[in-house]
Structure prediction request, 166 residues.
Amino acid sequence: MSTENLNKDEALSKMKSMVKSIKTCMLVTDFGNKPLSAVPMTTKEVDKEGNIWFFSRLDSDHNGDIAKDNDVQLLYSDTSDMEFISIYGKASIETNNNILEEFYDKMDDAWFNGIDDPNLTAIKIVPIEAYFWDNKQNKFVSFIKIGAAALTGDKKDIAEKGKLDL
Prediction:
């Protein structure tokens, strides 16, 4: 596995690409307690600055956790393509109507009573650092290379990983 530490522009591009591709993550909050609090979240948007947006209920446990301590970790995992990214950042709860209207769509009605729901909030994550693992080929090619490595004893470079300073 090769290691690739990217410059700021490349890192931002790599993070955006992976987050947009994977879409669903575990949002980890409340680092001071064990077990950690982790909830699944679906990404609404990654904006041009690289901020990651979610919708959440005002009365949710994770909103309460963020109000006490805004450190968060996002864990994205796509096992079908063998792509993984862990993002550390700072979170804020946003209630600005312009932001809510920008990201709201009909699918959100499953969790909220429309755009005017008083429990509707957006969570904005400002990424600080990320670490990724990304398969260079599709799963079938990787499987063949792993099999060949097992037979020959040769190490095969089938993936890349790296730290992203954002």
